[in-house]
């Protein structure tokens, strides 16, 4: 229990992320205006606590999210561990990062993840990646996730890399 | 000072004795000489009393009104509380009545459908924003399987895409990847209703004449309808029942635009769903083959 924040993220990922994402958030923030709780949780786990927690939570949430979407691909199982590992590597390479830097990393991560999702679902023939989708789905989703993620980063403060070690 | 007090003290018994004497000597003082003496005092006193009484009444009125106001305020607060409670109760009653009506319609639909069905409650939507899908509280344990049709009394919701032991994901009719055999109800021309439209079709739609189009994400296309078919905007598209997953005649959508081209064999018929997808709460899942008709 040396890293309470990580335990909090793990409990949230296991018990609350998917129920909130599927059952509660759509009633408050419809469609792309709803933050991707799985993506943000894994981002925080990787960015704040390192590769192992990022990948582990990415795998867990990847399985759960793929189970609760009609998409045929195991997209989340691929994407979320990558996000967890990638953000941890970025943080390790640039350990001293101010808030603006962290938000830039968040924005790039979210844009890459959402863009890759759209591209892969388009290749699988399940969504149609055109201008409409870009402006009505992709852009709002990226903006929403960056705003919510920035708030979470603010709330998390500035912990040292690897948590309280 | 002591001498003066003593003198006044002597006066007091004397005046009292005189008063008692006068009282006994003149029993009808009101009409007798004493009344002449007392009249001005009585008049003055009565005027003062009347004035005081008026002031008292006013004070009492003000006090009474204040008390009433205070009481009324408390009463108003209580009545407001009761009103709020009643509004909540009324809202609950309306909600229950609407739900009961909806369930009655579902029950009626269940009676009309020629195959086994499972009633399910909508738990939520898809975990991502890329798909228009619903999560149902019924799964394999209840007999639900991938590919099963999903209905409400107003029309077709979609088709079960994924199923777990206890839940099922329903892909809506207007999501890309949805395919349902359908026909135009009025002219009976059959085709295949496909969710989503191609970018080239969207461009073509924008250039074509007609009423303003709905958002592209709710558009569907009825394919393989002959070029000379009688189809116009406003026609209802219903299930044809050819595939066997849906009974025939269930509404799916309304035609919003028909594009005819001499260079193509088929019409381009664009359709929007009849159902407000976000408002669906209870559904029926068609879980089996049509029941055999008993021989006479």
SSE blueprint and pairings:
The complex is a heterodimer of chains A (165) and B (296).
Chain A: H1 4-28, H2 37-49, H3 51-67, H4 75-93, H5 99-123, H6 131-156
Helix pairs in contact in A: 1-2, 1-3, 2-3, 2-4, 3-4, 4-5, 5-6
Chain B: H1 2-25, H2 33-112, E1 117-125, E2 133-136, E3 149-152, E4 155-163, E5 168-172, E6 179-184, E7 190-195, H3 199-207, E8 220-223, E9 236-239, E10 251-259, E11 268-273, E12 282-286
Antiparallel strand pairs in B: 1-2, 1-12, 2-5, 3-4, 3-12, 4-5, 6-7, 6-9, 7-8, 8-11, 9-10, 10-11
CATH class of chain A reads: Mainly Alpha
The count of DSSP E runs of length 2 or more, i.e. the number of strands of chain B, is 12
CATH class of the largest domain in chain B: Mainly Beta
- Under CATH, the topology of chain A can be stated as Arp2/3 complex 21 kDa subunit ARPC3
SS-derived structural category of chain A: mainly alpha
Mean pLDDT of chain A: 85
Low-confidence stretches of chain B: none
Order of helices and strands of chain B: HHEEEEEEEHEEEEE
Oligomeric nature of the chains = heterodimer
Give me the Rg of chain A, rounded. 15 Å
Counted up, domains of chain B total 2
Characterize the largest beta sheet of chain B: strand count, sense, and whether it forms a barrel: 6 strands, antiparallel, barrel
What would your notes on this structure say?
The complex is a heterodimer of chains A (165) and B (296). With 165 residues, chain A is mainly alpha-helical. Chain A has a single domain (4-156), classed as Arp2/3 complex 21 kDa subunit ARPC3, CATH 1.10.1760. In chain A, 76% of the residues lie in helices and 0% in strands. Chain A has helices at residues 4-28, 37-49, 51-67, 75-93, 99-123, 131-156. With 296 residues, chain B is of the alpha+beta class. Chain B is elongated. The N and C termini of chain B lie far apart (132 Å). The mean pLDDT of chain B is 80. Chains A and B meet through helix 1, helix 3, helix 5 and helix 6 of A and strand 1 and strand 5 of B.
